[in-house]
Design brief:
By secondary structure, this protein is α+β, with helices and mostly antiparallel strands. The chain contains two helices and twelve strands; from the N terminus they run αββββββββββββα.
Length: 276
C-alpha cells in the first residue's frame, strides 16, 4: 500500500468513526447544551422521488440540489455537514444531516442561505416533508422558510439579504416572528401539500431558506439549525427528475473533492446503508 492510499484510507476510517471534528465555525453559539441522543435507524426506502437523508452533502450538487449563501454579507459558512458535537442527526449516522449557523453572515446582518431541491414535476397529492431543529436551550432565535418556484430554471435568489428572486411563493415560515424559543429544539417534522400551495401540475423547485434578521456573530438572532430526512412526493401525473450532468459551482467544488477522492479508492461503501 503506497503512502497516498494509506492517507486516504486513514481519513476514510476516521470519517466512518465520526472522529473528524467539524470546523470551529460550524458550531452553535457559546453556551449551547450538547444533545447526545442517538439518532433513529434509517427508514426503509419510500416510493417518492426525493428521499434525502444528507449522509454526505458533497453529493447534493450532482443530484440536482443547489446550495447558495445569499446573505447581505457572506460569512465563513454556508450549508455544511451536520456537526454531532452540537446535536446528532434525526436518523442514520450522527452527522447525517445538513446544518447552517450564525456564521452564514458577518457582524449583525441578514442571513439568507438557500438549499434548493432538484426540479420536481408536481401533481395531485404532491407533498414535501422534512425534519428540523435548533440547539437545546438556544436564546438566539432561528427561522426557516420553505419557498416554491415554478418559473424554471428557478436559478435567481434576488438581491442579497431580502431578495427572493424566482421563489415568490411562501409555503411555510417556521418562527416567522423570530421569537426566542420559537424554533423547535427537538427534531420535528413539517409537511406541506397542495393545500399549502404546492402545484397540481407543472415543474418547479422547492427551497429551504435559513432567513434571520439581526443575525450573525454580533447579532441578537441566529444560532444553528439542522434539516434531515427530506421527502418529496410529486403526486400523480409527473415523471421522476433525472439529475443533470452539469459541473458543480465553484462554491461546492472544494467539498466535492474529498468525496471524489474517497470514491476513487473504493470507499463509497462508507455511505450509510438503508434498512431492508
Amino acid at each position: 500500500m503506497n503512502k497516498l492510499t494509506l492517507v486516504v484510507a486513514s481519513a476514510a476510517f476516521c470519517l466512518a468513526q465520526g472522529a473528524i471534528a467539524a470546523p470551529a465555525d460550524q458550531l452553535a453559539r457559546a453556551g449551547f447544551a450538547v444533545d447526545m441522543a442517538a439518532p433513529n435507524a434509517n427508514p426503509a426506502p419510500l416510493a417518492i422521488i426525493v428521499d434525502e437523508g444528507f449522509d454526505d452533502i458533497t453529493t447534493l450538487p450532482g443530484a440536482g440540489w443547489t446550495l447558495q449563501n445569499n446573505s447581505t454579507t457572506v460569512g465563513s459558512t454556508t450549508w455544511f455537514q451536520g456537526n454531532d458535537a452540537v446535536f446528532p442527526a434525526f436518523d442514520g449516522a450522527t452527522t447525517a444531516y445538513i446544518g447552517a449557523n450564525f456564521n452564514s453572515t458577518t457582524g449583525a446582518s441578514i442571513i439568507s442561505t438557500w438549499l434548493v431541491s432538484p426540479p420536481i414535476n408536481f401533481g395531485n397529492g404532491a407533498a414535501v416533508s422534512f425534519y428540523t431543529r435548533t440547539v437545546t436551550g438556544s436564546i438566539f432565535p432561528d427561522r426557516l422558510q420553505v419557498r416554491l418556484c415554478t418559473a424554471m430554471p428557478c436559478a435567481s435568489f434576488g438581491a442579497a439579504g431580502e431578495g427572493i428572486g424566482d421563489f415568490a411563493t411562501l409555503l411555510t415560515d417556521i418562527n416567522a416572528g423570530e421569537a426566542s424559543g420559537g424554533y423547535p429544539e427537538d427534531w420535528t417534522q413539517f409537511t406541506v401539500t397542495n393545500a399549502e400551495g404546492l402545484p397540481t401540475s407543472g415543474t418547479g423547485r422547492v427551497a429551504f431558506r435559513y432567513y434571520v434578521h439581526d443575525a450573525g456573530p454580533s447579532g441578537n438572532n441566529s444560532n444553528y439549525i439542522g434539516i434531515d430526512r427530506v421527502n418529496i412526493e410529486e403526486g400523480t401525473g409527473g415523471t421522476p427528475f433525472v439529475a443533470p450532468t452539469a459541473l458543480p459551482s465553484i462554491g461546492t467544488s472544494a467539498m466535492i473533492g474529498l468525496g471524489a477522492l474517497l470514491a476513487l479508492f473504493g470507499f463509497a461503501g462508507l455511505r450509510r446503508r438503508r434498512l431492508n
